[in-house]
Amino acid sequence: xxxxxxxxxxxxxxxxxxxxxxxxxxxxxxxxxxxxxxxxxxxxxxxxxxxxxxxxxxxxxxxxxxxxxxxxxxxxxxxxxxxxxxxxxxxxxxxxxxxxxxxxxxxxxxxxxxxxxxxxxxxxxxxxxxxxxxxxxxxxxxxxxxxxxxxxxxxxxxxxxxxxxxxxxxxxxxxxxxxxxxxxxxxxxxxxxxxxxxxxxxxxxxxxxxxxxxxxxxxxxxxxxxxxxxxxxxxxxxxxxxxxxxxxxxxxxxxxxxxxxxxxxxxxxxxxxxxxxxxxxxxxxxxxxxxxxxxxxxxxxxxxxxxxxxxxxxxxxxxxxxxxxxx
Length: 327
Fold this sequence. Notes:
By secondary structure, this protein is an alpha/beta fold. The chain is built from 13 helices and 8 strands. Helix 6 runs parallel beside helix 7. The radius of gyration is 20 Å and the shape is globular. The chain starts with 6 loop residues before the first helix and ends in a 12-residue tail after the last helix.
């Protein structure tokens, strides 16, 4: 008697067949259901109107803080700035030790070792961008070296950018193989492999159908997270494109049994915005994704507004301008 095949196992086998050749991958990705743009944007807008009570708001603010990848990705970054950011991530509000720590500190590869040293013992992850961030315009050996250097320096997570030019040109298998190669470069001989976040730069992909296709492509290639954007272009995370990523990871788990994380990045600056995204997670994905292991905010200024709102709920008044640090 042949072994019983679960739906998830059958889905995984089908996905393996889909990546056997460039033509097979193209057929599979173009065979995905088309995105109803009007319906997608309407649902994202509707979810954004949901209100929550004060007690739930306090919980949501703390949850959002614990999901932040606190980020500095500037050419003028210094070791001192990175250490300062790590200290802030560990104790966002020095006046209230009940304030949760952030999920990760995200830096360039050459700062990963400094961040790893500063965060030792805190439980906060070191995230490093790699693969010629933010443009992704480099040869594959350079991208792999970039990734290995970050992991060797202590990065727990790697945020890579896809070759958008290759994807938009229809070279899907090239993008797939590049993601898979970077995933392999995240391996460690000892200890846990670095988790891989794959950045799409959704604002450059032209259509929602392309965003759905690249989401499935990245997950099939081994992404641990799929991420909207670098934060370095005009259009970054939006409720609609993030909802589309959420639907993709939901459907992928239904097909394969594998859970993938989601990270919107760029342009999320206020507590109100963050809470809208958390409502979207809860309504679309459920409690399984409501943790920093499976959902992140890529942000630099969001934390300050969350802290201001948190103090308002705690004390009944807004703090003065010197309450939070300037990153």
